[in-house]
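Exercise: predict the fold of this chain.
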Amino acid sequence: MAPALNHPPGVAFVEERPTNVDAATYYGGGDSYTRSRTYSTSHIHGYRPKKAPAFEEDWHLRPRRLSHDEKSVTGPRRFLIDVEETIRVVLEQEDTDGDFQISVTDAGPKMMALGTATSNGFKTFDIRGTYMLSNLLQELALARDHNRKRIVLDEARLTENPVDRLSRMIKHSFWHSLTRRIDGDGLEIITADPKNRTGRVNPRIYVPHGEPAMAEYYRKVAREKPHMNLDVQVLPEKPDDPAFVKSLNSKPGILALAMNEAEDGKGGKTLKGIPFIVPGARFNELYNWDSYFIALGLLVDGQVTMAKGMVDHFIFEIQHYGKILNGSRSYYLCRTQPPFLTDMALQIYNQLDRSDVEANRQWLKRAIQAAIKEYHTVWVAEPRIDPKTGLSRYRPDGLGIPPETEATHFTQILEPFARKHGISVLEFSEKYNDGTIKEPELDEYFLHDRAVRESGHDTTYRFEKRCANLGTIDLQSLLYKYEVDIGTAIREVFDDELELEEEFDLAPFPPSVEAYANPHRESSRSRVQRSNEWFDRADFRKGIIDKYLWNEQKNLFFDYDTVKENQILYESVTSFWPLWAGCASEEQCWKLVTQSLRKFEVLGGVVSGTEESRGKISLERPNRQWDYPPPHQIMIWVGLERYGYLEEAQRLAYRFLYMMTTAFVDFNGVVPEKFDAVQLSHLVDAEYGNQGIDFKMVPREGFGWMNSAYQVGLTFMTSHMRRAVAACTSPEVFFGSAAYLQPPMLNANVSAVDPLGLAMENLNTHFNVQNSPRDSYTIQSRKISSFRTPSFQEFSEARIRSLRFGQSQPLRWDEEEIIGPDVESRETLLELAKMTNNAYLAPNDPEWYDLGDGWSVIHYRTPSSQDHPFGWEPDADGFRGHVFATPDNKTVILSIKGTSAGVFGGGGPTAKKDKLNDNLLFSCCCARIDWTWTTVCGCYRGGWKCDTECLDKALIEESLFYPIGTTLEMIYRQNLYNNLTPNSNIWVIGHSLGGALASLLGATFGAPVVAFESPGERMAARRLHLPSPVSSTILPLSLSTAQAPPFSLPRSISHTSITPPIR
C-alpha cells in the first residue's frame, strides 16, 4: 500500500476550488496544491515553460507528439504555471503586432505547450488557437494583479464558454472597474478628464449653491490631501447661465453629486459619495442616457442598489442644476440628454427590497417629483417646445464652441471663416469664443451642434445644421413614456394624488402660441397632481405624433422641422422608439415590422439609419459615429417584444450578441464602444475613434452601455440560441441567409404568396444554373432505405395505445429499399421547390409555376360531384395542397401547403387553422407569437406557462391536419397502388408547416420527404405519439460553406432532408 500523502495544515486544494468564478475568488487566496500523487516536487518552484520547438523560424511546425503529452485523463486538466515567465513567452511568441493582445490578426503559431499540474510540469499539453491563448494571457494578467508568482490554472478557464465568460466578466469585473464615487476616496480617479484640453490637470470640483456642508467637506479634503491641489468652487444660484458656463471653459471641473451621511469611524459623521457607473475610456463622469442603459444591465446582474444610486444623482442634478445633465462636468451645465428617468425609476422600484414598502414609496415619490419638474421646466418649456405644434425639441442654451470636443473636430467648419478674417483657425476660435468676432451663421451652426449633442446622437448627418428645429420621433416617444409613467405612478402608487414640494412654473396645456405668450404661469404647489392630467397629455402627444411624424406612404415615423413645417425624410431606426414607448398603434407597428424593419436589419443587428439617407462618404464628408453603420439595439428589442414580435426581437438580439461574442473571441476579450454592424467589426474609424479597445493583456472595463446590451440581450435568448451564440454560429446559418431579406407582403388581403421564390433564386445562384427557356426540370431519383410497419392499422393501434394509456406496443419495422428524389441534383430541387410553391396557389393563379407536360394535377370527386385539388373546395378552410403525377402515374408527389400569413383578416380561409396547427404541433397551445396570433385554448397561466393537459385533448380535434393527411395519403395509396400502378413511387413535400406535416406523414408511411424551411418535427411526433423505429436515417442535403459564400446558402435547402425523420 502506498504511504499516505501529508500536506501542511490549512492547505488549499485545487480540486476543491471553483473554476469559472471571478478573478478575486480564483486568485485571491494563497497557493493551492493538488491531491494527486506526483513524480517529484522538485519543479514546483522552478518550472519554466519553453517555446514550441522551431526549425528555421517555422514556428507553425510541431514535432510529433511523444511522451511529453499528458495522456487522456478523466479529471479536469490543470497546468502548473510560472506567471511572469509565461507572460514573457506568450507575448514574445504570439503577440506579433506588439499591442499586448492576442488576436486573430497576430501571426504567431497559435500554439503553446504548458506543463500539467499532475506531473509537476514534466508532461505538457498544447494550448491551441486564438481564444485559448488570449484567455491564457488574460488569466496570467489577473494572477499578476493578485501578486501571484506561480499558479495552478484550470484548463476550463481557457476553454470557458465565451458567452458565460463575457457575461461573468461584465458582472464581476467590468462593473466594478467602471464604478466611481465623488468624495475624498474617489476624487483622484473621477477628476481625471481625458477631454480636458486646457493643459491644467489639477483637479477642480464645483459644488452647487445651497450645499454649504458639501462645500466644507471638499475644502476639508483639499486640506487633508494637499498633494491633489484640489480647487473647490461654489456655483451661483443659477449655474446654467450661458455666459457663465462659457466662462468656465478655461477652468473645467467635475460637478458635485449626491452624498449620504455616514459614520466617520471616529464617533462622528461625515459625507460619503454615492457610487455610480461611468461609460468608460474618455467618458469618465456620470452621463444621462448612458446611465439608463447601464442601469438595465445592472438590474439584470442584481445590482439594484447601484442603479438606485444613479437615480439619486439624477434627482440631485434636477434639484441643483435644473436638469439631468449631459454629463457631470462644468461644460455640460447648459445641456441635458434624452429623458429616461421615469422608466429607469420604475424599473428599479419594481426590484427594490419589499421589506420596507414605505421607504420604497418615498424614494419613488422623490423620483417622480423630480421628473415632473424636469418635464415642466425643461422639455415643455421654451425654447425646447414649439408652441405651434406642441412638439418638443433638443434646443439647449449655450455660447461658443463646445470645449469637450477633440482639438480638430471643427477645423473644417471654422477654416472658411478664418480665411475670411485672414487669421489662423486657432486665433479665430479664440476671438469667436470671447465675442470679439461676430458670425451669426456660425452661431446658428453651433446652436444645432449643441442640440445634436443634447440628443445623444452626436454626431449624425440626420441632424446636420437643423437639429434644434426638429421635433424628433425619439424625443416625442420618450416624453409620451414620461407622461404615461407619471400618470400610472400617481394612480397606482400615490392614490391618484401627488403633492409637489418644490416651487416652479407649470407649462400651459394644451400648448398653443397664445398660451405660451401669456406670462402668467400656474405654480407647482397650487394644486395636487392627478393621473388624468398626465394621461390627457399622453393622448395629446400621441395625436401630434400621428399628425406630424407618421408617414403613411413610407410606413415610418420621421422627424418634423418646426421652422420649415415639413417632415425630414431621413430614415432612422428611432422610428421604432414608439414601440418601446407604447405610442404606436397596432397597425403602425405591423407596418414598421413588415415593411420597414428590413431597411435597418443587417448581419450584426440594426443600423442607426439607412445608407441612402446618410449619403456618400468622402474626405470632405467623413463618417459620423451615429450614422450608418453603428448599432442601435436595446430600444428596438424591447419595443418589438412589447408588441408581441418576440421572434423578431430575438433575431435582432442574436445578431448583436453574435457580433459582440465573435469580437470577444477573436480580439482578446474586447468590448468596444461601437461596432460596424455591417462588416461585424469593432475597428471603426469615426470621429474620435473607438473606445474600450486600448487595453493591455486583459480587458478591464468593456464599455458601459455595451456591457448592458450584452446582459440584456441574453435575457432574450433561448437556451438553444445561447449555445449557438457561444459556438459563434453566424446568423446566416442559424436563421438562414435570407432572414432579413424577405420581401414584405404587398397587402393584408393577399392569401397566397411565393414563399420559395427567394430560395429558388438562391438555388440558381448557388448551383450556377444558367437562365433557361425551360419551364421545368427533370426530377432524378435514387435508392434510399426506409423503415415501414407491416400495415398502417398496426401503426395506428400502437399510436392510439400510447395516446390513451401511455403504453407502448411492440411493432415490427421492416427496412426496405425504396426510390426517392435525388436531393443532390439541383434540377430535382428546383422542380420540387416549384411544386411546393404551387401548394399555396390555385392552378389558375398567375403566380403558378408551369411544370410542363411532364406533370399533371390530380383532382378528386367531391360529394357535390365537382372535381377539386385536395383542400381547394369553395368552403374548405384547412389541410390544402396538390397532388402531382407523371403521365404514367409512376411517380406521385403530394405537396402540402404551409402556413398562410394572415394579418387584419388576410391570409385566406386556411389562416386560422394553419396557426392552430402551428401552435399545437410546433409551439404551445397558448403560444403568443404576435398580437395577430390567436391561442388554441384558455390555458395560459402567465409567465410563459400553461396547462399542457389541454394539448392532448386539442390534438384529437378534427381540425388537426395530421389525421387528415394520413387519411388523404391512404386514399391515394389505395387508388394508386391497388388500382393503377402497384409500383408507383409516392413522395411527400412541403414548405413551413407543410414541410413538417410532410415529415410526419413520411414517418408514418415510410415515404421519402423533402421539406423546405420547416420547423423540426420531433416534438410534434412525440405529441402525436407516433411510433418510431429503433434506428432510422436522415439524409440531409449538405451545402458546405467551403463550396460557396454564406450568402448563397438558401435557408430552405439547409433544412431539406429525406425521411423517415424520427430518431
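Check your answer against the key: DSSP finds 35 helices and 35 strands in the chain.
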